[in-house]
Amino acid sequence: MEPAEREQLERKTTEAEFVAKLLGLLITQKSCLNAWRELLDECVGFTHSSFGILGIINEDGSFDISAVSGADWQSLNVPREQLWQSLTGFTLQGIWAEVIRSNQIIVKNENPGLPWPPELFPRASFTMHSFLGLPFSDTAERAYGMLALANKPGGFSPQDSQVISRVAQALMLMMLRRKTELDLRRTNQALERSNRDLDDFTHSVSHDLKEPLRGINAFSKFLREDYGERLDEKGRHYLTTIENATLRMKRLIDDLLELSRVRRRPNPWQPVLARELIDEVVQTLEFSVKEKKAEIAVADSLPVIACDRARYRQVFYNLIVNALKYSGDKQPRIEIGCEDAAGEYVFFVRDNGIGIPREYFEKIFLIFQRLSRDDADGGTGAGLTIVKTIVEMHGGRIWVESELGKGSTFYFTYPQSHKEKFTCPVERCQEA
Predict the structure, then answer these.
(1) Does the first or last residue of the chain, that is N or C, have fewer Cβ atoms within 10 Å of its Cβ?
(2) Of 282, 311, 309, 315, the residue nearest 298 (C-alpha)
(3) Whole-angstrom Cα distance, residue 35 to residue 66?
(4) For 249-304, what is each residue's pLDDT tens digit?
(5) Residue 234: beta bridge partners?
(6) How many CB atoms are closer than 10 A to CB 244?
(7) How many Å apart are CA 317 and CA 321, to the nearest integer?
């Protein structure tokens, strides 16, 4: 093999190894910023440059530098904190901006100029004498970022341009990933701010709404205590109606707040024995169960589920409370169990109560839809809406089957795939 051929083969081998190394780096690095920095270091080292930047174009056209490399950065003579503040949101100049405008690789080996206004770093002690700029484009062929190298002794060669351009596609994907991460972070931050503002607003509104109710309720009690003997039966009935109405309005406000919290403030998921949740609910409702002389039968074999424990407990609580409330004149008999269907658990809460008309099968899950308008039952119609919201938050569905006078069965599903996210065995869950 001739020396020239051997030299060309060695060069191509080196180039291929370099490209493979960069691609491997992009694939294996979990952090986009770390991948950018290491990639830029490799490009600076491979081309023997002394200056490198990698950054993205903002929506307003300004440029943010996300990674820097090379010895020449030291000659800017600014503290590192000030450096990063200065490299955010500035306007590219000259040939550096031309890379973005033309969306093409540009090489210039004499006086390429600075990428930023001279006043940005007035104490800088270096100049640019060679330049290679590589744009990153999206599917619409618009440049949204750039890798730029500068100050290679002797200037950049066509081979440098070819090698660096080979990683453009991978860099484009990495830049898109980084842009997506930043957009998602900004969206999450905006959502968190919005949730905090909404929390403050809802608490303020609930307080303002409850204040007149407290006044109405207080004056109703004063009337009953001071003038009760002077009122006839109709007058006392009016007072009772006012007191029930204020109590119901307070419950409506509380339920709206609870529904708002369910949707916006979930708790961390954890593995839980479904039987454990049900036992807690039954114990909490012990007085109501004894008062109604209710019989509650819970299946022995219930699964471990990964869930928001407090919220999922609320599902069983609301359904059992409804079964007790709408039992009519019968002694309540409530059956709770679970069936193993294709890829999901199907829980059910069955009662022998008054039943639900078919036309209400879907309406009862809408906010403030109630079967009974009797204020004495204490309901607002939000309970099943909250149940449906929690079940759907866990990837499930809920529906009802019922026959008037014979009772109702509420079914709700839980995807078994959620359980696989946790490896806690049943024994450990029981101990917890």
Answers:
(1) N
(2) 282
(3) 11
(4) 777 777 677 766 666 667 788 899 999 999 999 998 999 899 999 999 999 889 99
(5) none
(6) 14
(7) 6
pLDDT in tens, 231-259: 888 888 888 888 888 887 777 777 677 76
Tokens coding 374? 């009797």
Considering only CA atoms, give the Rg of the chain. Answer: 34
Residue 122: CB atoms within 10 A of its CB come to 9
Host H or E run for residue 335: strand 333-341
Q: What angle do CA 135, 141, 146 make, to 5 degrees?
A: 15
Element (H, E) at 9: helix 3-28
pTM (two decimals)? 0.50
SS3 call for 89: strand
Q: Rounding to the nearest 10 degrees, give the CA dihedral for residues 44, 47, 51, 52.
A: -50
Encoded tokens for 142: 């618009």
Q: Are 383 and 318 in contact (CB under 8 A)?
A: yes
d(CA 147, CA 161): 12
Residues 6+ apart with CB under 8 A from 130: 108, 109, 110, 112, 150, 151, 152, 154, 155, 156
**334 vs 320: CA distance, rounded Å:** 8
In whole angstroms, give the CA distance from residue 189 to residue 187.
5
End-to-end CA distance of the chain: 73
| Selection from 272, 281, 370 nearest residue 317 by Cα | 281
Of residues 203, 306, 321, the one with CA closest to residue 260:
203
- A 10 A CB-CB count for 46 gives 19
List alpha helices for 149-305, DSSP H: 158-166, 168-227, 233-264, 274-284, 286-292
Per-residue pLDDT, 282: 93
